[in-house]
Amino acid sequence: MILNKENLKNINGNKVTKPAVEILALPEKVIQFGTGVLLRGLPDYFIDKANQRGIFNGRILVVKSTSKGGADEFSKQDNLYTLCVKGIENGLTIEENSINASISRVLSASHDWAEILKAAHQPEMQVVISNTTEVGIVKSEDKITDHPPQSYPGKLLAFLYERYQAFKGSVESGMVIVPTELISDNADKLKEILLDLAIQNKLGRDFENWLTTANHFCKTLVDRIVPGKLPAEEQKVIENELGYEDELMIMAEPFRLWAIESSSERVKEILSFEKADKGIFIVPSIDKFKELKLRLLNGTHTISCGLAILAGFNTVKEAMANKDFSAHVLQLMRDEITPAVVNESISHNEATAFADSVIDRFSNPFLEHQWQAITLNYTSKLQMRNMPLIERYYALKNEAPQLTALGIAAYILFMNVNKDGNTYTASVNGKLYPVQDEFAEVLCQYWKKPETVVDNILGDARLWDKNLNHYPGFNAAVKSYVELIQRKGAKETLSNLHSERTI
To answer: Most C-beta atoms within 10 A of its C-beta, which of 90, 138, 420, 449?
Structure first.
């Protein structure tokens, strides 16, 4: 039995959350550009949850940019799919399955463009969601008369112009536009590109005015790990348990965050699905969410990855299963990162709660997150995510942050880079790791003189945008940890550090 509308009645609702039949008749309120797993695992999850609670009462028209695969799979299953939430939340293991009925139709831009434009005439259509990857929001030379325009901004502009004409430029016909692409100021950039395209296409001043004043462009931050398809064997087990087959089944972690920037009451009214889940925030500024994610999630990952690899851990969950490493990560966040993150807009309680959620996410036994992947562009990640924290810590305490110094020591030891032609590698515990870092050559040269390698790396402002040797005690702390790891190994260093809290 496959998952579809007809078979819903035969599915056991004790093992999976099923949509009520009335949900399948709700009007389309959202046009979504993209069929990717992040969209299905986060915005579409929230909308489905709201519909189940009678809050939003609207479904999604999905636009697929390419004609390759996807639309037929959705059609075969009447656009239904199973979302498996698996992981740890508040220290407890979570495994939940739900049939998502948020999508009404999936149309191909290349085959169904006329039908997509027709949807612009639907009065209930009020929201645009997109995730077209980081390269989706780019300037183009699109003609909106193309069938369809090539770029995402070109497609969106054609849709909005169709709507403008259909409703004679009424203010009420404007839409709430919510891009989820992981680029800074995503909505501002999209708005600027659309306005440029409107001028290029000579759509007129009246339309330009409607575009910029009747529509709400909301900057967003999204955060949820959605690996997508489950491993084949694992999916088979779940399908047997639930009693149906589902080609569109995906997995997501329990943590979810969708921060949307707006002060408009109209936006809050239209995006009423905010009320359905604690993971959605419509706020005047999303800066604090960006800061928490950058420092506590990304920054902790980055400062820990070299140490984890030196200690012999391949995955994040494997490292977090080790009591010394998990204690180290918790102490790093609570003692050094959290105090440096707290400011006039982020309370200590907010930072601590976010840190606790990071521990849950790192410990997720259902995710295979490789430490090696985190070492990509290692130096620039440290500069962006961790260097400001060192500066703030010194401003607060005027002493070296010891666990951060340990992380930098591990970075230096991991980046003992070998060069073969144009390829750089690091050798750790008899295993070779590819090194993709813009400063690989610089580090390779510094390691030719091991006796000065710490001084040279810490003192190179090209790497850190500052000279780390100027911070009192930091050089000495890093050198002592380098020597300790070389002498005793990373695992024993961690064990000693967190049993005695001395080095």
So the answer is: 138
